[in-house]
Each structure stands twice: as C-alpha cells, then as structure tokens.
Amino acid sequence: MLLARVIGNVVSTVKNDTLTGKKILVLQPIDSAGKDRGEKLLALDSVGAGAAETVYYCRGREAGFPWYPDDVPVDATIVGIVDHVNVSRQ
Amino acid sequence: MLLARVIGNVVSTVKNDTLTGKKILVLQPIDSAGKDRGEKLLALDSVGAGAAETVYYCRGREAGFPWYPDDVPVDATIVGIVDHVNVSRQ
Amino acid sequence: MLLARVIGNVVSTVKNDTLTGKKILVLQPIDSAGKDRGEKLLALDSVGAGAAETVYYCRGREAGFPWYPDDVPVDATIVGIVDHVNVSRQ
Amino acid sequence: MLLARVIGNVVSTVKNDTLTGKKILVLQPIDSAGKDRGEKLLALDSVGAGAAETVYYCRGREAGFPWYPDDVPVDATIVGIVDHVNVSRQ
Amino acid sequence: MLLARVIGNVVSTVKNDTLTGKKILVLQPIDSAGKDRGEKLLALDSVGAGAAETVYYCRGREAGFPWYPDDVPVDATIVGIVDHVNVSRQ
To answer: Distance between CA A31 and CA E36 in Å, rounded?
Structure first.
C-alpha cells in the first residue's frame, strides 16, 4: 500500500452502475515524511476519509475487495486512515 | 483510476472473439488540471464515451468487470465520464 | 492495451507444460504514430499475428483469458491486429 | 518478489475491517547488496518480521494469499525473511 | 513475459508455508541482445533453471499458476528456458 493525502474529488454522472453512490477522491501520493511524490490518482473510499486526511490505499484487483461480492471496476481504494507513521531511518 | 481524454480509436478486424463489437479508444492520460501526462494507451469503453471527452479509466484485472461473466482480455476500461474535478491544492 | 510491432520470436524447449504449442513473440511497443517507445517484451499470440505486423496486447491476469479454463502463466498476450489507428490530436 | 528492509510501521485506527490486528510495516526496497533503491511502501507481514530485518515481499493480488480465504485488500505482503543472498555477478 | 539471466539465489528459513521447498532465484532482466536492463528481482522457478541460464519469467497473479490449486504468494516465476531469441530488428 502507499501513503497519500486526500486533495479533492471527482463529480461524475455517467459511470459504471457499480460505482453509483461511491465517493471518488483525488489522491496525492506522499512519502513517510508527508512530502508529495509522484502523480495524483483517483481512488474509491472504503473508510470515510475526508479532505486533507492522510490515508493509505491499495492498488490492483484487491482494491475491489471492500465491496465483495460486488465486482466493482476499481484499481485503487483507500483502506485506512493514518494516525501516525513511525520510521527509524529516513 | 486515472483521468484521460479520448483522442482517437483503433480499427481492428482480426481480434479475440470476446472483443467483437466493443469500441477500442485511444486515451491520452491527463492530470487534474487537464494537461497531458504520460503515454497514450488503448482502452475499452463501458459508458459510451465520445471523442474529446474527459473520462477516468480502470486498469488491470478489474478492467474486465463491466463485461462479467464474460472473460474479456482487456487491461484498461473507461468506467466513467468526468463532469468536474475539484482539487483543493494543485 | 498497448500498441506494438512484432519483431521476433523465442525458441524454448524447456517450459511450463501449459505453454507447449504456443508461439512466444518478441514485441516492440510503439506509439500511435508507429514510433518505438519503451522496452521490448515477450507475449503469447491469440490471433495469428505475424512478423512486422502492428498489434495490441493485453497485460496482467487477463492475458490468460484467451486460453481459459486453462491457467496459462502468461502476463502479456496479443489480442488483436491493428488495421488503422485514428488519432485526432497527436 | 523484491528485497526490502523493515524501517518502520503505521498506526491506524480507522481501517478496513479485514486489516484489524495485522501489522502494517514501512519497507525500504533494497538491492541484493543491501543498498536502498526506489520508494518506500507499506506492506502487511505474514512471517513475524521485525525492525531492521531484511525481507522479501510479494506484490499484487497474491499478496492476499497468506490470509486466504479472507479477501484482505492488500497489495504488498512480506512473505519471507532473508538469511543470505548469493549473487554470482553484481 | 520478460527475459532474464539467473545470477543467484536467496537462502531463507522463515517464510510463508507455501514457499517451503521452492527455489528462490535472483534474476537480472536482460534485453533480447543479452544486455542487462533494469533492476534485479526474486522469482520462483517452475522449470529447473540453473545459474547463468537465460530464462523468461511471468509476473503478477499468474506467476502462481504453476502451483495451482495451491495459492502461492509469488509475483514472479520462471516459466521457460530460452534456447534462442530471433529478432529481425534491434
């Protein structure tokens, strides 16, 4: 999983049926010190994350697991909100 | 998922049977400000996206979900059309 | 999916049983204008593609779908031959 | 799989139910000589790895296999602790 | 799939149960001319590959297929040994 900050959201009327009612958030990936790194992406939210919160997200097939047995066409999902990151060596 | 603009399409007569009758579009990935970023790719369309529209697409195994239970050999599918992207910090 | 040109093949006697009798081709990924981009890779062929043809290939788990229900350990498969690519903006 | 060193952990109260009780570690990928390379990431631990240990981790769908039949939304899992790496040519 | 040369192995006592008895090899990815490219990685071996041999490996979920129905947490597996690579254009 990777760390990211929630920085926005996407409004979309026409979409795959299974996405109806699911928040699509814009994420900025960050490193363990909170600094931006890499490109922004879109992710679904399975934990109620809000704007500016630090989260970690899961990519790939398993990004759809929180909605199992529905097969949601999603490749990135927020699976947790970060309280604190402990790193012994930057 | 990632944002992209529909910029073209592929004509293909010889293809895997499960792809018959499905539109293959050329996508240019873009950032949340609408600027091009990264390499163009081919994607199937599950929502009726048209030329020049801003869409978001899903990659990987789950790109085939819109056609489930058919197992379509596709690794990128448009799953929504974007009305608006709200970003609090570029 | 991504565009590529077929530029060679791999001869391999010792291989996983499920790969027996399947052509392994060398692909050079190309952009929509036909120019090389990125690294060459190996792919199986599900459509009868030949040397120098322009094709599109599918990556990941779904690359094995053309041989379903056989579970072929393959991560890239040619799923179509390109007749023409229309792009409104390069 | 890739080599990495365990350099920290993430404290997270709000998370997907299936992640409850599982350690989330911060990994620094390393090369076979033990030198850092690439970006840090978060992984679950299936083998009891501790701080500063050299491990190898598995990415993608199969990162969830150690918890099967639970469908854990995880894309990186530590699957072994390294005793020694033998490389004939650096 | 990608080409690689076997350049070493990993000794690991503590590991996921399903990995017991499986060789973990260190691979150096190479191009079709045999030159190194990209980062080394760890892979399981499903074909009896030995040191210095040129092989091709499969990444992702399907890397576990050679051990099906066991769900082995592996994301890279050697699936064939290369006799010869024919490329019409370098």
So the answer is: 30
C87 interfaces chain B, CB cutoff of 8 Å: yes
Taking alpha carbons only, the member of E13, E16, C69 closest to residue D62 is E16
CA distance C39 to A10: 34
Domains for chain D: give ranges and CATH numbers.
2-81 (2.40.50.220)
Residue listed under structure tokens 């890397």: E63
- Predicted confidence band at E90 (pLDDT cuts at 50, 70, 90)? very low
Give the Cα separation of B39 and C4 in Å (integer): 13
Question: Radius of gyration of chain E from Cα atoms?
Answer: 13
**pLDDT tens digits, C25-73:** 999 999 999 999 999 999 999 999 999 999 999 998 888 888 888 889 9
* Residue B62 touches partner C, C-beta closer than 8 Å: no
Q: Do the chains contact at A16 and B46, CB–CB below 8 Å?
A: yes
Predicted-complex ipTM score: 0.88
- D39 conformational bin, left if phi > 0, alpha if psi -120 to 50, beta if neither: beta
Burial of D22 (0-12, 13-18, 19+ CB in 10 A): middle
Q: Are D79 and D46 in contact (CB under 8 A)?
A: yes
Query: What single-letter DSSP state applies at residue B18?
Result: G
B80 and chain A: CB distance < 8 Å anywhere?
yes
Please tell me which residue of chain B has the smallest CA distance to C89: B7
